[in-house]
Specification:
Butyryl-Coa Dehydrogenase, subunit A, domain 1, Butyryl-CoA Dehydrogenase, subunit A, domain 2, four-stranded mixed sheet, four-stranded antiparallel sheet, 13 strands
């Protein structure tokens, strides 16, 4: 399916990036994988060619074009050659935006030209050894010492570009006794006394990307390095994380597409039982399924890119893109590896590296479980619902019924109260009711003629009463018609 989000200028930019990636990155990437690091010269070359800070205003040396599609192209071209090492996307899509959005004119003047030229490499440090998903529980503290500096203590882990980084947007607690409201962002720079790096962490994939621990011991950070307003850090993170998550989804969909391409080629070449393995019905169906899903995923990601450019990308949409597409990528690379047979398990075949590189995509940038939490109940809706929620006992019954007292929750052997004609009799078990719940009494919850939900009240080992999920019969009751 032809993509329609790019224009002529984007194509020219893509050609330039492709040339750079083919010449300066692809030939050296395997070497960098062994070293666990991308050399700083490569960053300088990228900066020179205008591939860093494309959206930074020209006054600060940037491209001056506020259009995320250029960032997309850079990510796609790196993924196209399997270059998981250069952390350009993190630098462009995640670190620089904090400075652009919340930095003062003085800070922009001080930091952006170096970030755009590649002289400085950026990182973002949120995760700590004790907390990742629960960001509000970070413990790295930045305590004011007089009016002109913070003293920072704590540590961070799993930090991308950690070894190379010169400029680290660091999530700290300026008021450690508070949760969300105590969070601020400070920029910690290479060379500040007390700022040290731990070992380069050994990962199962993405070997050329340097991932490290950072330590802060009484680091004196000038207050002029506070990004935005004191105590607003959590809000800033929530504002910027959608772009980070979309950026991951963009890499994931391209990664899935590349794995499929590699596999189609392999299936055409490899023969078994006298014909190419791509001719077996199973292979053709698997390839067809993957092609369909990637096409569908791509459409959604492209739409999210358009929404981001229009300033309309919500946290919910970004979370959907991130979990669904990274999940898809994992399924695709797994299936593609399977189609490679034993060769898929050998590192000399690029599908093996693709498989290993993909595994982290559902973890970083917020795990996919956290993405589903965000989609299921955005905080605003959750708090509105909480106010209206009935007491726990009442929640066992459908709305419209008389409010039940605790005595309506009966022990397992007791019959459910009969009201009108029943769909399932107390004690009966529908074929849909899980076997594990046998022995529970059936609480009939009838709603209309076409829809017959029932719930099973059963006792746990501890003797507490619990209700199973509702079992619904959308096409009528399996036992008898009411
Ligand atoms: C290669 C790599 C690069 C990274 N780069 C960076 C970086 O540059 N900067 C940075 O700050 N961090 C980075 N991270 C950290 C990453 O963002 C975290 O690992 C991630 O957010 C998960 O946090 P955690 O590892 O502490 O897992 P935990 O929070 O301990 O979660 C463990 C498990 O519990 C589940 N879980 C937790 N809470 C819930 C919940 N409420 N509901 C359901 N399930 C839940 C999680 O989904 C997960 O499956 C990187 C990680 C890796 C592996």
């Amino acid at each position: 399916m032809e993509r329609n989000i790019f224009e002529k200028d984007h194509q020219m930019f893509r050609d330039a990036v492709r040339k750079f990636v083919d010449k300066e990155i692809a030939p050296y990437h395997a070497e960098w994988e062994k070293e666990g690091l991308v050399p700083r010269e490569t960053w300088l070359k990228a900066g020179e060619l205008g591939f860093l800070g494309m959206d930074v205003p020209e006054d600060y040396g940037g491209g001056g074009i506020k259009d995320f599609r250029y960032n997309v192209i850079l990510t796609e071209e790196l993924v196209r050659v399997g270059a998981s090492g250069p952390g350009f996307s993190l630098h462009n899509d995640i670190v620089i935006p904090y400075v652009l959005a919340y930095g003062t004119a003085e800070q922009k003047q001080r930091w952006l030209p170096k970030l755009v030229s590649g002289e400085w490499i950026g990182a973002i440090a949120m995760t700590e050894p004790g907390t990742g998903s629960d960001l509000a529980s970070v413990r790295t503290s930045a305590i004011r010492n007089g009016s002109d500096c913070f003293v920072v203590n704590g540590s961070k882990t799993f930090i991308t570009n950690g070894i190379n980084a010169d400029f680290v947007v660091t999530v700290v607690k300026t008021r450690p006794e508070e949760k969300h409201h105590g969070i601020s962002l400070v920029a910690i720079e290479r060379g500040m006394e007390g700022f040290t790096r731990g070992r380069r962490l050994e990962k199962i994939g993405q070997h050329a990307q340097d991932t490290a621990e950072l330590f802060f011991e009484n680091v004196h950070v000038p207050t002029s390095n506070l990004i935005g307003t004191d105590g607003m850090g959590f809000i800033y993170l929530m504002e910027q994380l959608p772009q980070e998550r979309l950026s991951i989804a963009i890499g994931a969909i391209e990664g899935a597409a590349r794995a499929l391409e590699l596999t189609i080629d392999y299936c055409n070449e490899r023969t078994a039982f006298g014909r190419p393995i791509g001719k077996f019905q199973n292979s053709r169906f698997k390839l067809a399924e993957m092609k369909s899903e990637i096409t569908i995923g791509r459409v959604f990601v492209d739409r999210c890119i358009t929404e981001l450019n229009a300033g309309n990308l919500t946290a919910e949409l970004a979370a959907m893109a991130k979990w669904w597409v990274t999940d898809l990528q994992e399924r695709v690379v797994n299936q593609c590896l399977q189609l490679h047979g034993g060769y898929g398990y050998m590192m000399e075949y690029p599908i093996a590296k693709a498989y290993l590189d993909a595994r982290v995509m559902s973890i970083y940038g917020g795990t996919n479980e956290i993405m589903k939490e965000l989609i299921a109940a955005p905080p605003a809706r959750r708090s509105r619902r909480r106010k209206k929620r009935p007491p726990a006992a009442a929640r066992l019954f459908l709305p419209g019924r008389p409010a039940p007292g605790p005595r309506r929750v009966r022990p397992p052997a007791a019959p459910a109260p009969a009201r009108g004609r029943s769909c399932l009799q107390p004690g009966e078990r529908s074929a849909d009711v899980p076997q594990a719940l046998a022995g529970g009494s059936i609480q009939r919850l009838r709603r209309g003629r076409q829809f017959h939900p029932v719930a099973v009240i059963f006792a746990t080992d501890a003797g507490q009463l619990r209700r199973s999920r509702q079992v619904q019969h959308p096409f009528g009751c399996p036992l008898r018609r009411c």
